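Per reviewer request, we include the raw input and output of the structure prediction for the construct analysed in the revised manuscript.
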Amino acid sequence: MGGQQKRDNFGTFRRLLIFLQPHWKSVALGLSALIATSLLELVPPLAIKYITDRIIQGSAEFTRPERLKLLFLSGLGLAALHLLIAVFNRVRSITMHILGERFILDLRRRLYSHLQKLSLTFYETRQTGEIMSRVTNDSEVVEQFVTHAADTLIADVLRVIVIAVILFNLNASLAIVGLIPVPILGIITYKYSKKVRSLYRSTRERLADINAKLQDNLSGIRVIKSFAAENHEYERFSKEAEDYFNMRVNVIKRWTIFMPLTQLVVRLGETAMICYGGALVVMGQASFGTILAFVFYLEIFYRPVANIARINDTIQRALAAADRIFEVLDTEPDLSDAPDAKEMPPIKGSVVLENVYFKYSSGEEVLKDINIRAEPGQIIALVGRSGAGKTSIVNLIPRFYDPSSGRVLVDGIDVRTITQQSLRKQIGIVLQDTFLFNGTVRENIMYGRLDATEDEMIEAAVAAHADIFIKDMPNGYDTEIGERGVKLSGGQKQRIAIARAILANPRILILDEATSSVDSESEYFIHRAMDRLMQGRTTFVIAHRLSTIKHADAIVTLEHGRIIEVGDHRTLLERDGTYSQLYEAQYRLDEELT
C-alpha cells in the first residue's frame, strides 16, 4: 500500500510539473533568484567566523586602528550582502507568486474546458457544489504548493547540501554530532506523510460535501421556507460541518505531535553540538569563531529541516487536492466526436429515429424499438404518461445521449458522424424547467445567437410576446433578472426562453411543454408566434396539454418506452385508444376546474 502511494505521489507531482512547462522562463528566473539567495545566505556565518577569530580576537597581526577599520569595512560588506539578498528575495517572491497565480489560472481554465466536454451523465451522478469545490477550493490549495512549497523545498535541499559540506570542512567530528537528528527526522517525516495524505483526501471530500449541501440549500431556499424546514436543514448542515470539524481536528492532532517532535529532535541536536563544541574549545581543538559559525550554520541548516513539517503538510494537502482535480481531468466523456467527425452542413430538417433502443447508465432500458420519421417542416408531438420516454427521445436528437442500438439521422446523416457543436447550433430547445442566467434580459435572449443585432433581438422578444412586459421593467432590456431569473414570474421566464430559441432561428425545434407556465392570454399570442416560427422547421413537441397539439402532423403515443399509436389528432381520437383516453380524461378535468 505504501509503495502504491509513493508511486501515486510521484505521478501526481510529475503531472503538476507538466502544468509549469509553458512558464519555464518564470520558473528559471524564480529558481535563479532562489539559488542566489540560498548561496548568499551561507556567507555571513563564515564572515562572522573571520571577524571573530581574525579581527575581534586577533593577535598582533593587525593594529587596533586596522582592526577597527577592518571591522567597519566588514560591517559594510555584510550590510551590502544583506541588501543583495533582499533584492534577490524580492525577485524570487514576486516571480513565484505571479507564477502561482498563472498556474492556477491555467489549471482552472483546463478544468472548466474539460467539464464542458463531459457528458450529461457526469453531471447527473455528481452534485454541483462538489464539482465547484474542485474548481475553486482544490485548485487554491494546489496554488499554495506552487507559491509557497515547491521553491522552498528546492532552496532547503540546496541549503542542506551546501551547509553539510561547509560543516564537514570546518570540523568533521562536530559536524557528525550536529547532524545526528537528520536521519531521525527523515523517519518521523516518512511515517507522518504516510498517514496524513489519506486524511487530507478525506477532509477535501468532506469540504466538497459541505459546498454541495450549501449550494443545494441556497438554490432551494424557497422550498425550505415554504415548508418551514429551516431548523431541519440547519441540523443537516451543522452535522456536515461538525464532521468536517472533527476530521480537521484529527489532522491537527497529528500535526501537533509531529511538529513539536521535529523541533525537539532539532533542539536536542543543537544542544549536543554546543556541548561537544564547547568541550573542543576548552581542549583547544577548535576556535570560538568555529563554534560560532557552527551555531549560525546549524540554525540555517535546521531551519529548512524543521520546515519539512510545514512544507510536507502543504505538499500533502496539495497532492490530495491535485488527486481530486486529476480525477476530473481523467474522466472521459461518455460521448465524444468521432476522430473523423465532420461539420454538419446547413440542416434542412429531416429527422429519423431508426430501430432505436436506449438505456441510461443505470442499466434501465427506457426506449424500445423506436421508429419515427419527420420530414422538413413537420410537427411531431410526443405524448404519454410520465416516464413513457418522451424526453429520452428528444435528448437523442441533439445527441445528449447515444442510443444503445439503432440510429438517429438528421438529413440522412448519422449524428454520431458529425461534430456535436455543429449539430446543436442548428437545434433550438425550450424546456419546461426554464433556465435563465444571472444577468440582464438582453444577455439571456442574445444567448440564442450572440452575434444578433439589437433589432433582431427585439423582434424575437416581440414574437415570443415578451416585449410587452420587458418594456415595463425598470431598465427594459437591461434589467437584471437575478439567479435563474428569480425576479421574473414563471410565465415571463418561459417567454424569454422562447425568445432566445426564436432568435437562434434553428431548423429543428424541440419544445418541452414550452407554454406550460404562461397565462391564457400569453399562451394565445405565443402559439401564434410559434405557428409562424414552426413554418418550414421540423418541430418535436412534448405535450402534456393535449389541446395544444391538435395541429401536429403526427402524434406519437408512448407507453413504457414503446410506440403504441401514431397518427394525427382526429385519427387517434377515432381509434379510441390510449391517446383518446388521455385526451378525454384531460378534457373532463379541464371542465371540472372551470
